[in-house]
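Aim 2 progress update. The chain analyzed this quarter is reproduced below.
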Amino acid sequence: MEFDTIWSAYSNYLSNFVMSKVENKAQTEDILQEIGVKLHTVLSQDVKIRNYKTWLFQVARNLIIDYYRKENAKKNRERSYSVINQEGTCVCDLSSFVIQHYLPTKYGIPLFKSDIEKKSQKVIAEELNISVAATKSRIQRARVKLKELIEDCVTITYNKGGTIIDYQLKNTCKIPNELQEEMKRLNLTL
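Predicted structure tokens:
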């Protein structure tokens, strides 16, 4: 079969399918163009395709998955940039301080090694001479405790995607002096 025949038979269906998944007209057009290029390449190489419709939709699904992987990577990069304030101080420095000073050592050390030092759970388990399951459990428990500590003093507003869009210090919360000093040292304010 030739490209024009196949493309005219399926392009509208593909467009609707892709648009229903990415909800962005420009990105839909980009993905459709990539599908067309892949189809053209396969046809020019005389590769046998039993069912063009199935093949085209599988290519579309793969390209949509690639699109979301790239979007997630982009969001993760943006999040990592957003934890740095105007003076170049990383909010993770404050997280490190809170983890080390306000969580029980049993939970704080594994969380610090995991989230701040970026060590694997297996390495942490070996360093602490505990099982990987115990390490995982302590890290999860530490995250819950850290979240509770934060939510006791800060009202956090999230968007639909779960990203923090605003936070306000609660009137009922008194920030300990050592934490205030650390925030001053890091040039951070609430």
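Residues 80-89 have pLDDT under 50 and may be disordered. Helices lie at 3-22, 25-44, 52-82, 91-102, 105-116, 121-128, 132-153, 177-185. These observations will guide the mutagenesis experiments scheduled for the next reporting period.
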